[in-house]
Specification:
Layout lengths: L19 H11 L3 H12 L7 E5 L5 H7 L5 E6 L2 H14 L3 E5 L12 E7 L8 H11 E12 L5 H10 L4 H18 L3 H9 L7 E5 L2 E7 L1
Parallel strand pairs: 1-2, 1-4, 2-3, 4-5
Antiparallel strand pairs: 5-7, 6-7
Helix pairs in contact: 2-3, 6-7
Length: 225
């Protein structure tokens, strides 16, 4: 299947959610990087008003959303296309004693009213969305006027050296590390965007543009409505 990332309204990859054992393996592997989620949550919390409403798109096991909810009186919601992840995230939130609502749904058909959220976050998932322009339009729609969004994801022009270094920092076992490197090299990189491609995506949406910051193997796309 050709999964070359072009700035079109849709991608050949259908963006199916992880389910079953694949989702559970992903949760175990990413759970070894909890400090990264904690750090990201602290960084975002520093930008939020005390009673902010926050939507995380594709939260997976819910690690970031849960850590953010621990840091303040925020109303945090997670939306994921994977039923396994939604059920897992709800259990994780209950175990952590946090109030986070996790809902089943698609990034291209967000089941929330217009102008509902102060902040939107999406980490390591945007490259998998089958309708990227529609997803960005939905993000714009559900943000309040003046609301901000942050997309953090892999960039397609990341070098193999930087990918290997990133995987090494994850602290995975031998098999999981090998599997993760192969996933980056033969799957994830092909779905990811370059800076120029993401700029073209944004130009097709009400956002128009965003601030894109490249570092390591990824990039951050800062959005404002």
């Amino acid at each position: 299947m050709d999964v070359k990332c072009m700035s079109t309204a849709a991608k050949p990859y259908k963006g199916l959610g992880m389910e079953g054992w694949i989702a559970r393996q992903y949760a175990r592997d990413t759970g070894k990087s909890m400090e990264a989620y904690c750090s990201e949550a602290r960084r975002v919390a520093a930008l939020l008003p005390a009673d902010a409403t926050v939507l995380e798109v594709a939260p997976g096991p819910g690690y970031f959303a849960i850590e953010l909810a621990k840091l303040g009186d925020y109303r945090v919601t997670g939306l994921d296309i994977s039923r396994t992840f939604v059920e897992m995230a709800r259990r994780n939130a209950a175990s952590a004693g946090t109030r986070v609502e996790f809902r089943l749904g698609s990034a291209s058909e967000v089941p929330f009213d217009d102008g509902q959220f102060d902040f939107l976050f999406c980490r390591a998932a945007f490259k998998n969305f089958s309708r990227p322009v529609k997803a960005l339009e939905e993000m714009h729609r559900v943000l309040k006027a003046g609301g901000r969004g942050l997309i953090v994801d892999l960039r397609r022009d990341a070098s193999l050296k930087s990918i290997n270094e990133e995987v090494a920092r994850m602290g995975l076992g031998v098999f999981s590390a090998w599997n993760t490197r192969m996933a980056f090299r033969f799957c994830l990189i092909k779905r990811a965007y370059t800076r120029a491609e993401f700029e073209r995506l944004l130009a097709q949406t009400p956002f128009g543009r965003g601030e894109i910051v490249e570092s390591g193997i990824g990039m951050e796309i800062w959005l404002r409505k």
